[in-house]
Amino acid sequence: MIKGLTNKNLIVWKTQSCNPAIASVRYRCLLPALFLDQENLKSTILEGTEDIDFFDNVKAIIFVKTFTKHDYDLANKAHKNGVPIILDLCDNIFVKNYSNISNFSEFESMSKLAAVIITTGCELSRILRNRFNTINVTIIPDQVESLDSVEKCCMMIKQWRRSRYGLMHMTNQIESYLKSLKYRFSKKKMAGYSRIPIRLLTLCYLKFIKCPAANIESTHDLQQTYKRIVWFGNHGASHSTFGIGSLLAIQKNLEEINKKIPIELLVISNNIEKFDNLIKPFSLKTTYKKWTLQTIFKDIADSDVCVLPSFNDEFSLSKSPNRALLALSLGVPVIATRFPAIEGLSSCIILDDWDNGLYTYLSDDKRVSDDIIKANKIIEDSYSGASVAKKWTSVFRQLVQYRQI
Q: N or C: which end of the chain has fewer CB within 10 A?
């Protein structure tokens, strides 16, 4: 039971696991909380089956893609105490075989208690409005992330846990748990790298489980005649065609451009077996690298072009453009399959034109520079931490104006 929620005007974020390696946790919880903290809106986080004993200073509770029986009970208790309930949903959990949400009935029950459902884009908003036509649905996009912001999120998690568990007055059980698993922070600086002028991500122990140490040696050791094409993301799932397999849609395009401009296809993901089975047979140079928080930023920025193909099934149509945003923010041009949420970037990326897009971005430095400049302006206006924090602040002030946030 969490008994330390005593900060005035506290916003509570509820997740299944406060693990920054999980994209939904970073984009939909940690990063917004970080920038809201800079606006003096203080947050804390609950994980798993952690609970709240009292709600006097809790001004809102946000359930971030977690809808279990425990979550419903917590939401019901908060609702009875007059605390606004916010559900945040970044995936189309209603597609067939979606496996990450165990009980749809709990989501539906929680939606009846919710003051608002927050989602990432127009397609998922449309789906939610059709299913729950009496619910207030608001769009708040994913914000762009950086090494610096992720490092700060890691430090923030440590502070939250220290505050919640009261490390000076721990129970024997928690103390034993911490001693057995441990956590610590260490830092390494990234040297000789101009495209990301910020510190290498803190190597940290999060959720009291050791994160693997980063290998900061450059992986871009190819001959200068090779251009690097990067694809990065989750390897995929049974409920959708997204993931590594989406590269099959542009296999011929990559093989054709390789005849004109020698390329390396770098795949950064979490399933080497799928890479070996699907991508290695391509008739061009291919490389696999495991995705980690410590290396992803440099790996992308060392690339020449980012490709984001999609078969645009029911699940993929609702996805966020966060991967395109990340690549653009690191100075890497993007070619992608068109889907609803990426339309806001259509003026600074190439959509659906794979042959021309690959040749253009690999040979026309001015076009690359112009598109990155346009992208930076769009990101600053609509997808920066400050911009997204304003949207969250607006929601909070509307819902809890009488609770003095």
A: N
Q: Both tokens of residue 105?
A: 């009935």
Please report the sign of the dihedral spanned by the C-alpha atoms of residue 308, residue 123, residue 150, residue 20: negative
Question: What is the predicted pLDDT for the residue at 102?
Answer: 53
Point out which residues pair with 364 in neighbouring strands.
Answer: none
Q: Give the whole-angstrom CA distance, residue 250 versus residue 241.
A: 14
pLDDT exceeds cutoff 70 at 164:
no
Dihedral, 186, 192, 195, 200 alpha carbons, nearest 10: 0
CATH number for the domain whose boundaries are 227-383: 3.40.50.2000
Looking at residue 53, its pLDDT comes to 83
Q: Which residues pair with 46 in a beta bridge?
A: 14
61 and 75 Cβ atoms separated by less than 8 Å: yes
Asked if pLDDT for residue 322 goes beyond 60, the answer is yes
Has residue 236 got a pLDDT over 70? yes
> In this structure, what DSSP letter does residue 242 have?
-
Backbone angles phi, psi at 10, to 5 degrees: -90, 135
Beta bridge partners, 54, equal none
- Give yes or no for residue 8 having a pLDDT over 70: no
Residues with Cβ within 8 Å of residue 62, at least 6 apart in sequence = 11, 12, 13, 14, 29, 86, 87, 88, 118
Token couple for 326: 């990340």
**Domain-wise residue ranges, the chain:** 10-143+385-403, 147-210, 227-383
pLDDT of res. 381? 97
| CA–CA dist 11, 137 (Å, integer) | 19
What are the tokens at 365?
């430095």
At residue 57, the pLDDT reads 85
Query: Coil, strand or helix: which one is 172?
Result: helix
Residues 6+ apart with CB under 8 A from 211: 21, 203, 204, 205, 292, 293, 294
Q: CB-based burial of residue 325 (10 Å sphere; 0-12 exposed, 13-18 middle, 19+ buried)?
A: buried
Instruction: State how far the Cα of 405 lies from the Cα of 397, in Å rounded to an integer.
Output: 7
Question: Quick check: 50 pLDDT over 80?
Answer: yes
> What fold is seen in the domain 10-143+385-403?
Rossmann fold (3.40.50)
The string of DSSP letters for 296-347 reads: HHHHHHT-SEEEE-----TTGGG--SHHHHHHHHTT--EEE---GGGGGGTT
The total number of residues shown for the chain amounts to 405
Which residue intervals of 233-364 are DSSP H helices? 251-260, 272-278, 296-301, 322-329, 354-363
Residues 259-268, mean pLDDT to the nearest whole number: 97
